[in-house]
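Report of the visiting student (M.T.), summer placement. My assignment was to run the structure pipeline on a short list of targets and document each run. The first record concerns Heme chaperone HemW.
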Amino acid sequence: MPSVLPDGDPAPLDGSLPAEAMASAAGRALGLYVHVPFCSMRCGYCDFNTYTASELGHGASRESYPDAMSAELALAARVMGEAGLDPRPLSTVFFGGGTPTLLPAEALASTLRTAVGHFGLVPGAEVTTEANPDSVTPESLATLAEAGFTRVSFGMQSAVPHVLKVLDRTHTPERVPQAVAWAREAGLNVSLDLIYGTPGESLEDWRTSLEAVIEMEPDHVSAYALIVEQGTKLAAQMRRGEVPPVDDDDHADKYVLTDKLLGAAGYSWYEVSNFSRGTEHRAHHNVAYWLNQDWWGVGPGAHSHLGDVRWWNVKHPAAYQQRLDAGLSPAHAREVPDAEARHLEDVMLRVRLSDGLPLSILAPEERERVAGLVADGLVEPLPALKAGEDGERRLVLTLRGRLLADGVVRTLLGF
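After the run finished, the structure tokens were exported:
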């Protein structure tokens, strides 16, 4: 089942934001995340806030959901205006889930038009939807492209049938290149998402998946190590001994192979788990997350970040829709992280980027620990530290450092 919401302070029923926390929003880009919480079936590894038709219960449906999204977009525009935030057009829009493309393409297109009507859209903005390969058609992709979507991210996960079966994926390997071709014909950029480390997946299986991806020539590739979350079907199977446990060494071998094969095919890493052909094809919406820009999250369980305030919506689609039907904010709770928490986040997120962690972010005692990381081969030698466009010196992970990125963060912060 989906993971639980975090604790926090009560969120106002009208959605209002504390004025004193809004000053830091000036100059930040504004993104929009739209959560579509529907899936045709629950994958065994998934603990996202998603629901099959049988799990929705009363008070929520796919048919009524577009109206709920539109209602929250109107609330967002009102709340931001009342908080005194200057109007900012959207720099990125991302429809995630779940499977957004289980909704009719016109419903997604209409939601995008509503968002643009409230906020505007930066020229050339990235507008993405996630999709399963078997949840699209040539016609649906063409409708999305005509509405202003620029990019589709397909949940491929693997090109090997027995791996897809363990993951409970509904598509066949043959469907992926077909969906990619349709997206190209519609004029959309393409990202392919992969998962490595599935129980029973050999290194050669993983090579097969990578080679299949390279043959399709996507603009962007995400490759994530399988994390088995408590409460999932896969976690229960492991407890019962039905599938073998996750192996960290196996993950490392597969990541090294990923870097080697994708690098040789012209893809550069720009975040530990993400690779693109040129900076223009990076997932700019996700980059905004990693750089702590602002975004509003629409949908049940969606998280938002404006200025110094973070909040998250009620979890179940029925509760979400009931709040909005009553003219109330769907926000469940919120927090204003203190300086220490924001510093930890900055280090944890920015160290994962190939653009590097600016040394100025680190406290003096943290900078003193960099030499030890260089000696251990976890970050690039000091003379080679990357300079950003502003000329600032930055810490950049080596390949070994990417494998041990969490350890690098702990060392820098003295944990």
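The CA atoms of residues 139 and 273 lie 31 Å apart. Residues 65-82 form the longest helix (18 residues). I thank the supervising group for their guidance throughout the placement.
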